[in-house]
Sequence to fold (270 residues):
Amino acid sequence: MSRQQAVLVTGGASGIGLAIVEAVLAEGWRAVVADLDQANLDRCRNTFGSSAGNVRFERLNVADEDAIVRCIASCEAEFGPLTGVVNSAGIGRDVPALETSAELFRTILEVNLIGSFVVSREAAKRMQARGAGSIINIASVSGIVGNEGRVAYGASKGGVITMTKVMAVELAPLGIRVNAIAPGPIETPLVKEVHTKEARAAWMSTVPLRRYGSPEEIAGAAVFLLDDSKSSYITGQTICVDGGFTSAGIITGTSAALASTQAAGPAAVG
Ligand SMILES: NC(=O)c1ccc[n+]([C@@H]2O[C@H](COP(=O)([O-])OP(=O)(O)OC[C@H]3O[C@@H](n4cnc5c(N)ncnc54)[C@H](O)[C@@H]3O)[C@@H](O)[C@H]2O)c1
Fold:
């Protein structure tokens, strides 16, 4: 059995972050739900009422450096040492590059990239004293390939992936592992709001598994990376949980047609 963990999850009150909080609690570990959205935090507080003592709620804006420093200090003092951190707080907007303002670009970098950096840095300062810790950054397939409309979002997530590698190298001697998860399209409130019918059709045609993923499928990878008994030799990696999206080239459906022809037996071939 793995040791009891205490994991801070930013953006933990919705979507992927919320599924990770649920998975952490299901492991018998403890969780800090840190999120900007008070209404979602209140909803979580009601849902997790029965886990009282194992879960703490923090209203946090990851674009506010001072607030992050205060939040991590109070969590460590009042909740106990953090063994893991998941940076899931994120924002996105689909805007063509030529229409993207510097202000929008900065806003997205501020939350997705710099916010994740400051949370990781502050948590790692505490973890180093104990010589152990696991940090996970929720990146995106848009940080790996050039998805249309994602000039700011994709750059922020590409930055997250490189930041993950640098921090993994620097923190390895301190016993702290740093990894990223790059989700493909995942059915969350964010995606329900942003993905148009056309966007959905486009994703479906480029994901080999032909479906959106669930937040729980990201949470499974997160629990694995948090758990030293399962992933102690993994650091600096970006694991794509994307239904095969980043491995795909042309998808014509020909191989599925071939497979069904073969299943029908030799008579059908001739
Ligand atoms: N859903 C997808 O298809 C998908 C794909 C790839 C990557 N991601 C990434 O996964 C992460 C979670 O996305 P989601 O789909 O679950 O979205 P979501 O909107 O359901 O959840 C995001 C949470 O982050 C919180 N948040 C936003 N700005 C914040 C801030 N400044 N400080 C603190 N909290 C803040 C929101 O209140 C919300 O609760 C994001 O980083 C997103 O970029 C999502």
Notes: The mean pLDDT is 94. The radius of gyration is 20 Å.
